[in-house]
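Revision sheet: structure tokens.
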Amino acid sequence: MAKFAESRMAFTVVLACMLVAASHVDSATLTCAQVTVLLTPCISYAVYGGTVSPVCCQGIKTLNAAYKTAEDRRSACTCIRDTAATIPGINYERVNALGGICNSPCPFKVYPSTNCSKLN
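Predicted:
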């Protein structure tokens, strides 16, 4: 049990470091890797519910601030939609509630059927 806690703590520290590094997204085009790093801390809430971590909310706020173009929104939407579809047990209602919970509304809703190409 202690090894699990240590592994989880190490994973959290690595994610936090990645988040800090990714929080300075200055390019005009967001990559799926950047989006994934920012939103990975949100997966446990999206699957299990409970409390949303501050690191998750910071990732959402950073991502929402990084959208510079419609293409950024479309790319992020596609990345989130496609990645979420690979996560067993994901609850899309929880995913779509995160923007409101974190006081940083998302410009789109994510479902397997979301047509990201229509975002402006």
